[in-house]
Every structure is written in structure tokens, then in C-alpha cells.
Description:
Elements: E1 2-5, E2 20-21, E3 25-30, E4 37-46, E5 50-55, E6 64-70, E7 81-92, E8 96-107
Amino acid sequence: xxxxxxxxxxxxxxxxxxxxxxxxxxxxxxxxxxxxxxxxxxxxxxxxxxxxxxxxxxxxxxxxxxxxxxxxxxxxxxxxxxxxxxxxxxxxxxxxxxxxxxxxxxxxxxxxxxxxxxx
Length: 119
């Protein structure tokens, strides 16, 4: 099952979304002219509009990337979920800041009910 959404940008009079401290492993992928860039990283903070993370290497300002995070909670106690983000890199000063353009929550191969698989 796929659910794809485009985050709504707040009007100038609305509050900007709050960033939450979230520590999750991630994998990113970028298609670029010199060749594809792939790597792993660790999230630091997330909001409904952006994500801040420490990448392994290769991300530059303005790149469009796909970030995949294994969601920590199982759906119905046994179905793994992944959060897939389409982002634009907006800052890279040791940690990367990226604006979320699209997001999809997708299901993965289920495990046996009542039994979580190893990460």
C-alpha cells in the first residue's frame, strides 16, 4: 500500500512547524549528472516540512534526493513501514538540512504476527 502526499506550506500568518529530535538510520539516493550518489546517515531532527541529518558523503546544496527511513513502529504489530521523502538539500554545514517536497509511507515485507524481525 502506498500513500503519497505533498506537504502543505504554511501561509505567512501561520506558525512554522516545530522540529522534533528524532534519531533514525536513513539511506539516501541522488541522480546527478556526474553519476548517482548514494549513502547512509542518521537523522537529528525532523518536522513536517524539513529534515536535519548527518550524511555519509556526497550531498551538495540544491540537489534533489530520495531519503528512505525505516519507521520504528510496526503497523498492526507486524508490518514494517518505510517513510520515503523527496527532498531538496537547503544547507550542508557538517549536517544537512533538506526541505521535504513529497513523502510516501510504504509497507514492506511483513513478519510473523507478534514477532519483530531484526533491523
